[in-house]
Amino acid sequence: MNSNNKVACPLDCYDACQAQMIDENIKGSKENLVTNGKLCINFANLLKVENLQTAFYENKEISLDESLNILVEKLKSTTPAKTLFYKGSGNIGVMQNSTKNFFTQYGSNLTRGSLCDGGGNVGIEEGRGVVINPPIQKLLDAEVVIVWGRNLSVTSSHMYNLIKDKTFVTIDPIKTQIAKESKIHMQINPKTDYELALLLTRFAYMQDLEDRDFIDEFGNGADWFFDISKNRPVVSYEATTGIPLAQVNEFFDLIENKSVAILVGLGVQKYFEGAQIMRCIDSFAAFMGYHKKDAGGVWYLSNSATGYENQFEVKGVNKKVSIPKVDFGSYDLVFIQGSNPVVSAPNTKRVIDGLKNSFVVYFGTTYNETCEYANLIIPSTPFLGKNDVRLSYGHEFKSISNIVKDKSQNSISEYDITNFLLEQFGFKKLKDEDEIISYYENHKPKLEDFETFNFIEEVSIEPLYKEKTNENFYLITAKNKNSLNSQFANDDFVYLNSKTDFKNDDVVTISSKYGNAQFIVKIDDDIKEDCAFFYSGNKKVNYLTPSEEDESSFSVMYQEVLVEIELS
What we know:
This protein has about 575 residues and is α/β, with parallel strands linked by helices.
């Protein structure tokens, strides 16, 4: 056991907190600016999670050695082209990426795209060239923070604590806690964020608030972007976005001559044209010059691996399948690591049908819904029992995780199982673990700021409101403050506004063109009247979502859905 007591939170979260083990208790580290000596409820819940204690084969307990031997036997008896490596984000750390090294060399099919952020990443990359957040100090120095489609107090509670005394503007269909605390809440209609960005651009120009110096020095295509914003009457945006023009004027009165930061969430880009939507928002920010101000900027999901050399990368010619379109049943063997596709992947019925027709290996720390369809379950070592480095996609700080607890003899780390498989198949083993850890711990990447900002010059987005009837509801989801990941307990309710025809505890059938499921209604007037709201991790909501990819990033478009609701 390592005498160092540092521990990094492995949850899929912006904050990437650093903690310390002190007298068998974990406490937040004050060395990390974001953690700031505090632990959130999600980290606390993680410590209460019951981890897998034994391996299983066909629902029977077996030893770890037996499970590894069965895995090798199955891989050797299967054609590599008929296998799939499917990795999720149930737990995050650089060492957990090691397994891809083996499956690349073995010749498995790999995945591309994302369940959450791919469209937005493409949009930012097309504008700025690289997906990197500004230094967090710029956020701390901002006077006004625009929270655009992001429930900051839930998804980034530590970052929120650093800026909770700022002046907030919230843009969100849901009246979140931050929305309630904001000077202005623009309760926008779903999938109209790009229209609002264009409207704000138009108003900025009308009031001479654009940053001409930034545009002249760094902007490319700004005039084209502005032309897009004036292609339709200003008043027409009011009906489509749901935002009164008077509120837009109030917005500019609030931000004028202020340093402004924009925090953009994932919901804005969970559509077919997600990259375009994000790029419109980013282009508005550039029009205002926020990207180059001493204070302010735009934060999304930074690529935290930028500037690091991948210590596990190996060349391969593997076929890649987009994550939304994965058909598990088309493979003889599926290796699932740290993921729960039965809950988190779109089109649940299709996922389950596929898993039933493949040999499924689950490798993870906890038992979940996907395990019910697994033929072989191999416990991975929980984060307290292995060394790792946690990079953050929310800020520039990283957290170190040392072994502070003896690991179960019936579990194996990602690094160790990779080396075991590499040896079994005659491949070169990985670098020494300490060498890899040391590289990520000590390397300080030099991140170059962009020199040119490319404004979006063409917008081709099909609005959902054109398809919507009075009987339809927009499907939207968000994180629950008490259950960041699906490994925690989640509710399976649908939340509706009291102005609908439904009441508390009604049992309803919700249908889309992709499937249907039953839900119990909970009335919540924080939800827009024409929206059906679900917390992420709801075990039935993905019966309603499409196994289709967006237009640019091979990613899921969960909210490109209209649903109908009727009493069961």
